[in-house]
Amino acid sequence: MSVNIFKVFVIVYVVIGSCAYCSTSSDRKSDESDNEEYQSLREGFDQGNDDFTANFLSDVIDENPNTSAITSPFSVLFLLSQLALHAKGESYKQLANLLNLRSRYDIRVMVPRYLDDINSQRSVNFSLAERVYCSMDYPFSNAFKRDTRNTYHAQAENLDFSEPEEAARMINAWIASKTNNLITDLVPSSSLNEDTRLVLTNAIYFKGDWRMPFNRRMTKKSDFHVTRKHKVSVRMMNQIGHFNYSYLKNIKAKVIQLFYKDGNFSFVLVLPNKGHSVRSLSEDLQYIDLQNDVINQLEPARVNLTMPVIDTETTTDLADILKKNGVTAIFDYDNSDLSGILKHPEPLYVSSAMQKAKIIVNESGSEAAAGNAIMVGTTAAEAEPKTVRADRPFIYYILFKNTPIFAGTYAGPQKS
């Protein structure tokens, strides 16, 4: 009998402004050594995430170079870490290498605290949630249920996959509840059958307000140059303000950082020089360190920023991307070893992996944010502002404490 795992990554992401709240810790003295260990592990994971994000986005752009896309490699890593805890042999080695974590102990220490931190941001609507579904006839191992509960703050449920329509309805209902109903039909009933053993879901939802909202009256229709020979009319937002900015010669691009309200989350736009394609830019970004070589090079500057309103939704097949990044064993029936997941081990492999993501970036995000605008007037002593006019394809990120949570490219509005 063939055995299938249908693995689902669900990413939904909405940006309309933003702000963040930094969590606090207690018992500083007793937790000092634990904090040092956690920070060290988190730095390692974040570095692995930076590398994976650069490779992931480059692969997506390479596949469709003139198409807008939004992705969340960060959330993929969290779901893969759950598999890694109960994988063995080559399956475990490949997953641990991608995660940039040395052991299962490292995962159990790092993941719950990272989730607590990122889910505790009070000034933005943000959540990262996971749920695992298993066939009724194949119960989870006690260790897997314990890790799902304690490490991922998630639930593991049994479903009757021989009733695919009902199983899909229940999975999609949970996804919809975690994404403010933006994603309602990710898992088609046709993807489930009596051979399905496991469905892993991951949902991210983000919505927040800009620290400096755009004035809607300044939004105008303008040309966006998809290629040298093809242009489309899009809504372009504009404001003059103080942002973190730099021109980086090593990647031939202007970079500007817009903060959300409390400063833990930010939007980073990377605009390549005219004649330097997004495809080439994505390749350049694979060979540098995002934080040290990009974010840390930004300095406060007065900037005249023009950028498009973004509304992008992307479904990405993850199998090829993961294989290119060294994760092959879990997709191979003969080599996959995920035997620690089930109470009564049997051959398991990942037959399908996909991610669905959505992003909306507009002027303010909410009516309440309009009253929080910081207006910067011009004085005779101020120099002419730097100009960033994003009227050609560019790359962008959403960062949480300088770690990329989402990565995308804008190449004009998607075809309906």
UniProtKB/TrEMBL annotation:
Residues covered by the Serpin domain: 54-413
GO molecular function: serine-type endopeptidase inhibitor activity
GO cellular component, one term: extracellular space
InterPro entries for the chain: Serpin_CS, Serpin_dom, Serpin_fam, Serpin_sf, Serpin_sf_1, Serpin_sf_2
Alphabetical UniProt keywords: Protease inhibitor, Serine protease inhibitor, Signal
Signal sequence segment: 1-20
One Pfam assignment: Serpin
Cross-referenced PANTHER family: GH10112P-RELATED (PTHR11461:SF211), SERINE PROTEASE INHIBITOR, SERPIN (PTHR11461)
Family stated for the protein in its record: Belongs to the serpin family.
Protein's recorded name: Serpin domain-containing protein
Originating organism: Leptosia nina
Classification lineage: Eukaryota, Metazoa, Ecdysozoa, Arthropoda, Hexapoda
